[in-house]
Amino acid sequence: MLVLIIIATMALGILIGYLLRKYDCSLVSKISTLSVWVLLFLLGIEVGGDKSIINGLHTIGFEAFVLTIGGVVGSVLLSWFLWIYIKRKDK
After folding, report:
1. Where is the chain membrane-spanning (predicted)?
2. For the segment 46-87, what is each residue's pLDDT rounded down to a tens digit?
C-alpha cells in the first residue's frame, strides 16, 4: 500500500509540474535542494544515534565505500555516454 501512495504522490507531482510548466517555478528547485539537505542532516543524526550502526561501522564502511564508488563511476559513465549520444543526434 505504501508503494502505491509513493507512486501516486510522484504522479500527482508530475501532473502539477506539467500544468504549471508555463510559470516560473524556480523557487521549487531551491525548496527541493533545501529539503534534501535537511533530510540528509536528519539521516546523519539518526545514524549517529544508532549504537548498532556505529558499532558495525568498520564492516558497513567498506561495503558502503564500494557501493558509493560503483554508483559514482556508473553514473559518470552513463552520463558521459548519454552526452555523446545527444551531441551526435544534434549534428
Report:
1. 5-20, 27-45, 65-86
2. 988 988 878 877 777 788 889 999 999 999 999 999 999 998
C-alpha cell at 6: 509513493
Kindly compute the dihedral angle of the four CA atoms of residues 46, 50, 54, 57, in this order, to the nearest 10 degrees: -70
| C-alpha–C-alpha distance, residues 87 and 81, integer Å | 10
Contact, 27 vs 34, CB < 8 A? no
Determine contact, residues 60/53, Cβ cutoff 8 Å. Answer: yes
Q: What is the pLDDT of residue 61?
A: 76
